[in-house]
Amino acid sequence: MMPLSSGTIIDGFRLVDILYRGGMATVWRVEHADVHIPLVMKVPRLEYGDDPTAIVGFEVEQMVMPALSGAHVPRFMAAGDFTAVPYIVMEFIEGPSLRERLEKVPLPVAEVTMLGVKLATALHHVHRQHVIHLDVKPSSVLFRPSGEAVFIDYGLAHHNHMPDLLAEQFRLPMGTGPYISPEQLRNIRNDARSDLFALGVTLYLLATGERPFGNPSSLTALRRRLYRQPPPPRLLKPDFPPWLQEIILHCLEVDPERRFSTAAQVAFDLQQPEQVPLTERAMRTSGVRFSKTARRWLQSLGAAPRASHSVANHLASAPIVMVAVDVIAEMGALSEALRRAVRRILISEPDARLSCISVLKTSRVAIDSNVDAEGRNLHVQRLVELKHWARPLSIESQRMTFHVLEAPDPATALIGYAQANHVDHIIVGARASSALRRFLGSVSSRVVAEAPCTVTVVRAPATAAVKETRAVFT
Amino acid sequence: MRISLLTDIHANREALAACLGHAASVGAERYAFLGDLIGYGADPVWVLDTIASYCAGSAICVLGNHDEAVLAEPRGSMRPDAQEALTWTRARLHAAHFTFLRQLPLHVEVEDMLFVHANALAPERWEYIQSPLDARNSMAATQCRYTFCGHVHEPHLYYMGNDGQTSAFTPMPETPVRLSPQRRWLAIPGAVGQPRDGNPAACSALFDTASRSITYYRVPYDAAAAAAKVRAAGLPAALSTRLQLGQ
Cβ of A63 and B182 within 8 Å? Predict the structure, then answer.
């Protein structure tokens, strides 16, 4: 491999200076005459006797990075072969790194929540592109100046639609000691929920200042997480909010089946603390103990080969579905039609979450009173109606949340909510058309036009009387 | 340079036309036909004329076992329906077609790429690559980093590390995969004219020599029309049915 120094030109990229020199790679700031964004070049440190996983890891990174795009990954520019100088050129993300926040742990709950939403959002975007990171930790996260979290370092990643060079070649678990998931210790590399485990470790560390499983160095010490639960944050900090403990320990379940299904669900719960369904996990205050569920999971692992996981199918099977419910009293037959549409989707996707939304229209200018003529609180009244509407659905309460949004423009409020909460599917009712509605444009048509996801528009079935009239005249 | 990889066309005009159109739409600049241009299907003349016209340009073409068998009685035994189709095909070809087939090489090397119909260990023996071990034997028989072959009708991707360890991967259509020059790769695009994995859509692949990435494709075509022609030609009914079922 040729020696590198400032001024060296490789495939048109001119090396400027070294930004970072790590154990595995050196990162150079580089320039290119035709590229007008700041760039870095990552060059692996390949020396005789080096860890072979590092070499294959760099190959993996060269394979996976070109397939990724969007705000939550560094933009890939070029890759160089091992025959000359192996390298990857990508967009320079200035940072800061999440690692820098570790100096200040434990962080306030509000900051942990804000960071958690950003990390989960970024992870969901990576997973949506069929990639499992498998090395989620604070040093793998940089923040853009605009605030979005960016995952870097794809040397251990698994792309669901590409050969897994690491899985084929190495039999030892690959990951970073404090963060590695139980299934990675079992050499399972195709479950997106492994990243949710590492996200849980990260949030635990940010919120408590401690690592849930310490910093184990031997394989035996690493395996302890297969059968021992971490000390609950409330043991370390008695005033730790139960809802945040619920979310973190939900991520840290040994059996991936018992974790959140998707990173979007983690982001969703972090954004609505008051609606997180609290289980035994939320209240746990006792120390480390043997986990029965973990033991069952371990036994099941030995018993049967695990089906291969498709990240895309997995994400698709756990959508966040949002139903927009209008003023219930005025809905008539549409009310039941909407429930029927919701039921149909939730039955076919048992891991789906349902978010029931109603918009309380406020005036753009005047300050509204939030009580009606009888002195009832309108917000509370709407929430009561919303829950009443949902009751016949007979869906387990932990799969459902309720929100009343107050906004002057219902369509904008619904679209904004869907964006912020990674909603996969919106179900919205459309009332019969009227002259005024045609003139103003309906809420449903704006949602269809502007929503970031699939939208189902539900209409009440036409009444028999109308059909008969038509039958007479046609 | 983007090279379209098309193999096991088997005289299926509809499938080849669809794949050539698709390849052009995804930016193919060069074409490689990996053998078995004829046999089974009802349009050997159109298929050979079309491929010969591509070869008059920069296309690469190698001989397959069906192509060889139409020139002379095959050495080994062929399945009865394949044999029947060959006899039917032979009666329809003109002298120019035989001349074209006779000059086809068993393999072609271009830079670090090998184009061959079957296992490169002994191309003339027409051995299948059905396991990582077969793929390893084939890759060990060439200095080329990339082997592109056919004969097997389902899409596959094999790769071999420096230690000889070879693994198999079932490619996903439409996902470009970078074939790292750190190892050897053997890519089987799957059959254009007679897919057998239960999906009747034609198979093809595109290799980009600049980014060293391969993308597999499934190209839908009018299999019912191709099947109807096989029936109308009086060829064995099974050859018609399997086109529509992709079996």
Answer: no
